[in-house]
Amino acid sequence: MNNKKVTFDDIARYTNFSKTTISRYFNNPDSLTLKNQEIIAQALIDLDYKENKVAKILASGKTEFVGIIVPNLYLHYYSEMLNQILSSYERFGYKFLVFAGNSNEAVERRYIQELLAYNIEGMIVLSHTIPSAELASYHIPIVTIEREDQYTSSVNTDNYMGGVQAAGLLYKCACDILIHINVDVPESIPAHGRIQGFLDICRERNIPHELLLRDLGNTYEDNLKALRKAADYLDGRYAGKRKGVFLANDTYANMFLNSLIRMHGSLPEDYRIIGFDNSPISSEAVIPTSTVGQQIDKIAEAAMEILVEQMNERKKRRPAAPGSPVHKIITPILISRETTPIPDL
To answer: Is the model's pLDDT at 58 over the cut of 80?
Structure first.
């Protein structure tokens, strides 16, 4: 058998089962007894069977493809999340088709149509552009991550807790003023919790604070320009005061840190900095940066678990009717590094 491709006919002869039974093993194994499944599985090993993926797709209509839409890949959170999702192949066996939408609504709709043309079995969406109601209208399993999710299953960080953790750490650093730099995130998006958690701690403890909610742009160059302007502004407005700066993600935190170092030759003593994500750039920065860790590996794993469960349900002979969206929240972990030294009391 090792000199030619093993066919269903070969497996049927080897096991004394019909070709129909062998086909059922591949396409609907639950219809066979456990004993017969074990007999066929052992035969595949004995015969050194190599599965013909194309034939399987044509026979079953199941591609084992999952589509992914990300906003961009220059923000380290998205590239690390993508890395974690792709690594799930060893566990779940799904392959991935990936598009970066760059916040262009028309482009992302075209990408989704392209994914649907490939007969994807499910989709993971990190981009914020397409409303969840529209995503749900495609009638395939979809899980979203860190975006508006009223009509789709989702996995998100407890962003409110993360904002509380960031403000609390900067407060311990004996800062005179706390600043949060972010875009003006709508309340429907989970990341708004970072703003609210920060604000609530500042108000609860009567900490002087300022929100810098600005359009930071959609490219690395735009982000860098906006964050350099923010650094200039804080240098002038709060000269002589210890400034605790909480940035919306680790990429922004690294840009802000680098801007200060370029302006002053080193990180000024009157700055404390914390980001959000715990993407690799936070620990690899020229000065390792404190961060609120999103446990990206757990988010990716949970998203795939929910998606695979929904995709498997659709493969059953009598699938259950779709239920309410599933929403899972992952607890963040505060990570203190060199940019938030706490003074001795």
So the answer is: no
Going through 6-113 in order, the beta strands assigned E by DSSP cover 65-70, 95-100
What does the alpha-carbon distance between residue 226 and residue 203 come to, in Å, rounded to a whole number?
Answer: 27
The percent of residues in the chain predicted with pLDDT above 90, rounded, is: 73
Residues 6+ apart with CB under 8 A from 225: 217
Q: How far apart are the C-alpha atoms of 335 and 345, rounded to whole Å?
A: 21
Q: How many CB atoms lie within 10 A of CB 331?
A: 12
Measured distance between the N- and C-terminal CA atoms of the chain, rounded to whole angstroms: 77
Note the residue count of the chain. Answer: 345
Task: Read off the pLDDT band of 8 (50, 70, 90).
Answer: confident
In this structure, is the dihedral angle defined by the CA atoms of residues 309, 315, 317 and 321, taken in order, positive or negative? Answer: positive
Strand partners, 291: 275, 335
Residues 273 and 339 sit within 8 Å (Cβ to Cβ): yes
CA-closest candidate to residue 83, choices 339, 291, 283, 280? 280
What is the Cα–Cα distance from 315 to 71, expressed in whole angstroms? 30
Helices 34-46 and 19-27 cross at an angle (nearest 10°) of 100
pLDDT at 56 over 60: no
pLDDT digits (tens, 9 = 90+) for 276-312: 999 999 999 999 999 999 999 999 999 999 999 999 9
What's the confidence (pLDDT) of residue 149?
A: 96
Cα-based angle 292, 298, 304 (whole degrees, multiple of 5): 140
What residues contact 180, with CB distance under 8 A and at least 6 apart? Answer: 163, 167, 194, 195, 198, 199, 209, 210, 211, 212, 245, 246, 247, 248
Quick check: 57 pLDDT over 60? no
Cα 86 to Cα 294: distance, rounded to the nearest angstrom: 18
Q: How far apart are CA 302 and CA 124, in angstroms?
A: 11
Do residues 47 and 11 lie in contact, with contact meaning Cβ atoms separated by under 8 Å?
yes
